[in-house]
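[Automated response] Your request has been received and processed.

Submitted sequence:
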Amino acid sequence: MGKKTEEREHALLSASSAKKWLNCTPSARLEAAVPEERSGYAAEGTLAHSVCELKLAKQFTDKNMSDRTYRSRMGKLAKDPLYSKEMEGFADAYVDYITGIAYGFPSAPYVAVEKRVDYSSWAPEGFGTCDCILVHGDAMHVCDFKYGKGKSVNSFENPQLMLYALGAWDAFRMIYPIRTVTLHIIQPRIDNTSSWEVPLEALLRWGKETVRPRALEAFKGEGECVQGKWCDDCFCRLSATCRARAEANMALMAEAENPTGTGLPMMKLPPQLSNEEIGDLLKRAQFLKAWVNKLEAYAQGEILAGREVPGWKLVEGRSVRTIRDFDSAYDALCAAGYPEAALYRMQPLPLGDLEKLLEKEHKKILEKFIVKPPGKPTLVPEDDKRPPYLPPL
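Generated structure:
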């Protein structure tokens, strides 16, 4: 258990940050000098992976595990303050997905759980821990469990999974004649699953032509810092203090003040931006909001730590009134003659809280009443993998 921290602690070119160092090669070395702050979300994710690991072991890799041993190990995990029945339910959804893949083969596949894979043939000192690998004949499936619910993750050309696949192929190629690789993302908290099949030949070509040269640059700390989605998607530790990011964003602001580059005033241009101009500006300005938020959070942290950020200070923000002691306050109001029923409002629990109360077998009672309406339209770049929004008829 707990293997999910190894990659973060030891691999400079980690698979989880591949999107970052493949695009911004100096980032890996620069980040190595900045201490990592472990968040509560990360700790929750580690626990969820441990629950998944135990369940998969019972199902596939440790058939001799007794029910008593299973209950004992799960009991230890359940003592963690971050554990919840809901977490175990999401782990069950993940195990069901893996089981579905396994049952799709004509006979039982080889299954590896929390398998450490080495992809150092493509990225110096590169290794990681893959959540689950299934191999049968010439087909290999590489699966990654995502417990986060902030952003939807897609398996299509996912560099983290592709690196895991390279390492897995390297480990099993002498045993299995692998020809195709299918990458899977299972993100049950937001009901997101995706899979993408890639021929082994294409995967190896990507490793040779894309990963190897970029990884060598990244390992040496060479190349240019480049702003992109990876700054925030991969939680870059330098996302607030990166000079290249600041220069890129400030250059855009300068261009907005003088769009012609000739010093001509704005009034010489049409008073309204065209849709073409708006589309171009949105593409180049999509990182501004996230960057400013990171700057503000960093400055606040510095001031709270007792360090000065010239030109800025912290003040007390808006406060919301609350009752210090609800029980005593309500007892006093009841003593004053107010009926207790008038002081409380009964409301149904939110769906997530309601599901936490239910046993697994009782959740089926609720399932037939659950609907998932379409989400609100969200503006994204045209290369986003999701299908276009269709207004309701």
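Summary generated for your ticket: Confidence is low (pLDDT under 50) at residues 1-8, 263-267. Residues 40-61 form the longest helix (22 residues).
If you did not submit this request, please reply to this message.
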